């Protein structure tokens, strides 16, 4: 499909630079069979049915943004996928000043050798020393805020809390599963009281999620792979919900993509551990997911294509037009949508 079919005009002031507080007071646009309704996230228990299940991503964001030098050249690195015990694939700023075998000093006693430059300009960074890379990143790295936020203000101490979900446990993401940022213990208690079940899986979100689709046609876009895991107990719980007539509702596109990667054509979710580069566009036949809670996404992004596959492209253009006209806040720190086809 033509990528420009997924374009829309977003006023810059609609981009949220900070989350609302408390988290569950964010607005939520509900799109279902009855049309559109303007709610807040705290209303979610009333929007679901007893027996439904919400599926969360328990990945934890690491301080994966690094600033360093190779000689007199400034080098910026955003880690996006672990490739080994001490190796991470990274997008590089000022990559023209870096070649295979160069050493980059990131300060605080942290350095790495650049290797294996890829066609997209990324390198593998092989970190020196014996300390775990996670320890090195805590010392020298910063939270990797999306470029549409980082380009407007610096990362600060608030982001270390704001950019983690209450479910964050498994270290390895370089971007937050932002739909889950809206959840609080009080909201979880309300969902439990309403008979809504919950489960968690792990998908380590990569920085590739922020990359624009540069191709003119979706067939020519290559997705970056991300590592995920659904254990056997969780897969069994997901299947049991659907078997008894409940709905599986993914909280975030990351949860949705991993569940769909693990589901077969028989609609059964199987245990999964490994990489996925699933790219969901209109025409895709969903195998396991019945709904999605997600934030509002960038024009011409793979994530807007995904929600268009779930709800229909024209329907999502209308949903986003309503959100823009009604002053919803967009992107990672913005408001939510609940999509129930």
From TrEMBL:
The keyword Isomerase applies. Transmembrane segments: none annotated. Its EC number is 2.4.99.17. Keywords: Cytoplasm, Glycosyltransferase, Isomerase, Queuosine biosynthesis, S-adenosyl-L-methionine, Transferase. Its main location: cytoplasm. It catalyses: 7-aminomethyl-7-carbaguanosine(34) in tRNA + S-adenosyl-L-methionine = epoxyqueuosine(34) in tRNA + adenine + L-methionine + 2 H(+). InterPro entries: QueA (IPR003699), QueA_dom1 (IPR042118), QueA_dom2 (IPR042119), QueA_sf (IPR036100). One of its GO terms (molecular function) is S-adenosylmethionine:tRNA ribosyltransferase-isomerase activity. Pathway: tRNA modification; tRNA-queuosine biosynthesis. It is found in: Cytoplasm. GO terms for cellular component: cytoplasm. The keyword Ion transport does not apply. GO terms for biological process: tRNA queuosine(34) biosynthetic process. Belongs to the QueA family. PANTHER family: S-ADENOSYLMETHIONINE:TRNA RIBOSYLTRANSFERASE-ISOMERASE. Monomer. Transfers and isomerizes the ribose moiety from AdoMet to the 7-aminomethyl group of 7-deazaguanine (preQ1-tRNA) to give epoxyqueuosine (oQ-tRNA). This is S-adenosylmethionine:tRNA ribosyltransferase-isomerase. It comes from Sphingobium boeckii.
